[in-house]
Each structure stands twice: as C-alpha cells, then as structure tokens.
# Entry
Amino acid sequence: RSLLARCSLVSRPSYAPHRIDDPSYVRIFDTTLRDGEQSPGATMTSKEKLAVARQLARLGVDIIEAGFPASSPDDLDAVRSIAIEVGNCPDEDGYVPVICGLSRCNKSDIDAAWEAVRHAMRPRVHTFIATSEIHMKYKLRKSREEVVRIASEMVAYARSLGCEDVEFSPEDAGRSDREFLYHILEEVIKAGATTLNIPDTVGYTLPSEFGRLIADIKANTRGIENVVISTHCQNDLGLATANTLAGAYAGARQVEVTVNGIGERAGNASLEEVVMAIKCRKELMGGLHTGINTKHIVTASKMVAEYSGLHVQPHKAIVGLNAFAHESGIHQDGMLKHKSTYEIISPEDIGLTRSNESGIVLGKLSGRHALRSRLLELGYDIIGKELDDVFKRFKEVAEKKKHVSDDDIEALISVEIFQP
Ligand code: KIV
# Structure
C-alpha cells in the first residue's frame, strides 16, 4: 500500500514519444517472465522476477510481459509488484516500460491480468485464443464463428475495464487459414485491440513464409493501419530469430522475444540475437532500429541464466561463452592483425569485458604469434630461442589440456626462466 502511494506521486512523463511515432522503430516486447518461465524447470521467485524486470527496464525494453496472472495467486502478486515498482518509475528521460499480463479469452483471466497490471503507468492486457483448425477442433472444440465472437467480446471486455492498451493473439496463426485470420483480426480491431500479435506457436513456418504472412495481413486486414503488428516466433525448427527478422522486415513493429531465447519447448526468438541482428545489419533491414541499450545485454543474460537455472550453451550466438573466443591458429593470427577479420560485433557493445584483450583462447591449434601476444599481455617480452622453447613446452601442455590458462603459461615461463 505504501509503495503504491509512493509511486502514484510520480507525475506522468511523456514516455519518450519517438518510440511510438517513428515508423522504423521496432518495439521490443520481452516475454522472459511469461513464455520464458514456461521452460521446464525455469520457475523464478517473485524477488528474482522483480530483479529481471528491473534489468529489462535498464535495457530499454518497451513492453515487459511480466506473467500470466490467472495462472496462480503468486504470479498475480509478482506481476502486480512489477507493475508498481518497475511500471511506475520512469528514468531521467521519462521512459517507463509498458507492463503486460497474459490472459486467455475469458473474463476471469482478463480480470486477473487487469488487476495485476492496472497499477502501472502504461498497463497492457494481452489476450489470446487459438485460430488454427487443429487447435479449434481438438483443443477448444469450438467453431470459427464462436472463436470470433469470444475474441471480440473479450477484447471489448478488457477495454471496458479501463484498459486502453489491449493486445490480441490468434494462437497458432502460423498454421491458421489466411482468410479466417484477416476476418478475426478485423473484428478484434473493431472491438478495440491496439496490438495484433501473430504467433508462430509451434515454430513451423520458414522465414520467407512468415514474412509473407505478415505482409499479407498488413495488405488484407481492414483497419490494420491503426494498430501495431507484432511477431511471436517459437524456435522448434531453430528459425525463431530468422522468422522474427523476416516479420519485422515485412512490417511488424513489435517483436516478442526472451533473454537467452528461453521459452516453451525449444524456446523463443532471443532478444540479444534479434536486437543485434537489427543493429548490425541496419541497412539491409531497411533502417529498422530498436531502443535497446545493448551494453546491458550480458548482465541480463547472466541474470536470467542464474535465476532460471537454464545455462547458456557455449556456442550460443551473442551471449555464449565462445561467442567472442578464437581458438584456431589462422583465426588468432587474423584477430591479432585486425579484429574485424573474425568479429562482426565488438564485445564491448553488449557489455562484455573479456579476460584478455584479443579474445584468444590458447589451445592446441594456437600458433607462435598468438602465444607471443598473450605472453606480452602477461608482461613477458620473449623472443628467439627462448620463445621457441616456451612454444615447444606450450604445445606439449596443449596436447593434454583443452585450454591453456594464464596460470599454465606462468608455470611454463617460470620453468623456462628458472631452469638451470
Ligand atoms: O506461442 C504462443 O502462441 C503464445 C501466445 C500466447 C502469444 O505464447
């Protein structure tokens, strides 16, 4: 209660309007705390969720889907405290993220979502119902007409509670009939939906197909120009990032992602991959850009890995342990001559501080050039015969160990220097 009182004293800022008006601006909708938490075993405590939400706000995420309030009283409480604590405290630029709660298309879910998010300055209710023949027939056991009626009634219901920002998702849109999709989307726009999210729920589409789907929806849905189109791509075929980029290129201006790509089954499009691809290939992406401060990516990734217990695979793009490590002699030689030879992103851009300048990992494939460079970084200027001897001993050690550490090198040097 006292927290609510404190937060309501903050005057409403302008919410960084460039984020809304710029046609090339892609909103980042993070669902780590909702879809991400649906990864088996990834449950986080309310305190951990709050800490993640704060980090997402620091990153500059536009919309934080904080949970699924109807799923449990604990989740409702967690979403509510995120709405109060994170959704009410703008930074010095007046930026405050939208706080969103998920609900199925029924009144009690929507009530729970609204009860949780309404304390935020910018609350959003996200409601969904399945629209593919498979889901309607086997899961919902409802006709197309019933699904359209429920969807538009529930969007209107959410609006009637006072929620001005309502997102609608036709679940399994990737496998839904196109004409039916256009129809249901038109009806929910009329009912007051402000964002239309297009989920590839089972990660089934190919990038060209998903891009076409977004372009077709944009071209064939009446009223679409008044709402934001969004993507939500699952990763069952390993295509979530590619599909998301194809969707953004085709006109989606919101993308739903998770930190480290966690989520149901094979996960979701990962925030760091989508954001860095848009940043790194801006021209090819038609000038699209996001509001993410990429320097906070590594901290967010580590925090989510620790709290969710889902550790990041070493070769994961952008945030994996090896994403900026160079092992082969040829690559190391290139890196020592110029970093752009083998790095398309600078590690500092994502907030990564490497233990050594060049990112070189010494192992059995490393050459003399790499060893000498590391020795120099460690303060040993060794050349000629002395270097030959250290390199020989280094190769012997590297044959037995996956990586030769700085301690190993120090040991090699002391043997070399102090041996009679
Ligand atoms: O994968 C999905 O379809 C979802 C929706 C609720 C957006 O998570």
In short: Strands lie at 27-30, 63-67, 98-104, 123-130, 166-171, 195-200, 228-233, 254-257. The mean pLDDT is 91.
